[in-house]
């Protein structure tokens, strides 16, 4: 799908064909676990995802994040109190992804990492991967891995071409 955005510059053209992963840096341990569960699928061309760990030194990080947001067909939110406290996430990542969900059908996948004010957030309108009363922080490693498998499957399903 091609789309255009007017940002005051020339319209950019992009395809929504990736999963965008949004997280708080304090939750990097969980991002690493998710990466492990996505690796098989990415190696086999079934999942294409982006997160800020892919920004290389010297690159314009703001442009890279904007491109990641614009190419998202799936938005994966790793939700914790730190995630909800992040002004950057609240102002730069959530609004465009929630708009894209409403207007373009971007799939929203929230993974509840730890107890937080999630039920008051704009993400609460979307079904979560795991129930907020059972966050990953309260799970065993095996239980967390089952959730990550579910996330990978959900991403893979959402990225299928129509």
Layout: helices, strands, pairs:
Blueprint: E1 2-5, E2 12-15, E3 18-22, H1 28-43, E4 49-50, H2 61-70, E5 72-79, H3 81-85, H4 87-104, E6 107-112, H5 141-159
Parallel strand pairs: 3-4, 3-5, 5-6
Antiparallel strand pairs: 1-2
Pfam family, one: TIR_2
GO biological process, one term: signal transduction
Organism: Reticulibacter mediterranei
In short:
Residues 15-147 form the TIR domain. The chain is an alpha/beta fold and 162 residues long.
List keywords for this structure.
162 residues, alpha/beta, Rossmann fold, 4-stranded parallel sheet, two-stranded antiparallel ribbon, 5 helices, 6 strands, 42% helix, 18% strand, disordered N terminus
Low-confidence stretches: 1-12
Tally the helices: what do you get? 5
CATH superfamily: Toll/interleukin-1 receptor homology (TIR) domain
Give a short account of the largest sheet.
4 strands, parallel
SS content category? alpha/beta
Instruction: Give the number of DSSP strands.
Output: 6
> What CATH architecture label applies?
3-Layer(aba) Sandwich
User: Which overall shape is indicated by the principal axes computed on the Cα atoms?
Assistant: globular
Radius of gyration: 15 Å
Question: How many separate domains?
Answer: 1
CATH topology: Rossmann fold
Give, in spatial order, the strands making up the sheet with the most strands.
Answer: 4-3-5-6
Mean pLDDT: 91
User: What's the level 1 CATH class?
Assistant: Alpha Beta
Helix percentage range: 40-55%
Order of helices and strands: EEEHEHEHHEH
Termini separation: 11 Å
